[in-house]
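Handout, section B. The chain below has 269 residues.
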Amino acid sequence: MISIKDFKVGIIVDNNLVEPINIENQQTVLLRNKQIYSIRICNNHNTRTSCFIKIDGKFIGNFLLEPFKTETLSRPSFSEQQLVFVKQNSEGGKLAKLSTEQNNKNGLIEFVFSPEKMTEINEKNNSQSRYFNLQHANLGLNLGYSEIKIGVDTVGSSKRNSTYDISNETSQPKFTASPWQEKSNVQEELTVIEGSSDDDFHNTYRSMEPQLHYSSGGTGLTGHSNQLYVDVEPIINIDYENAAECTIKLMCNDNIETNENIINVMSLK
């Protein structure tokens, strides 16, 4: 996951955390075309925080996180459909109405964390409730569900701050997956290096790393998510000194063939 101050963000595919790579000084996650994904957000701060999120330059929600909580978002606050990544100029990309402007924000996910300012009252409440929160989380895992308080929309007409249940999902992924974990059509090359003499690297073999091919893409909506949101009161007293911003870029891994046939893809807005 990508860390900034007391907060972390990441991308989940098939219940696994996908490892970001650095492309042109931007933390980037490579996904295959028509890949359904979720967003993981983590609050390691000692107060509540709101997490304002934009995808492709479009607002998808402002979500409330309790102290020391990690949650996963499978849909925007205004739609019951799942997030799906689609390649630019593909059939899915056209259905998702991805921007074709030169300086578009396709693939960019923007996060703004705004923690609540610590006061004497919520400092006492926080210290008294940690044991209860831990027990509650463990109880949820044992029963196969966990109750999550999440998010307030403070912008736009569809304002969401929500509580939802996640069925059969643990608080952390099983392992971290790299962009090369899935089957790739790029094979490792074996190159012979010819030397000028026996003292050189005559007939020495070395393995070449496979070349990474990627292209632009963005997010649309498809299918149905069972995640439930409810409205909660927004954070008013913000601790601006501990606020943080970060971004993740989603791009299409062109080395992976796409077998999924998602017929119905809609735009975020």
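Note. Helices lie at 91-95, 120-143. Compare this with the example in section A.
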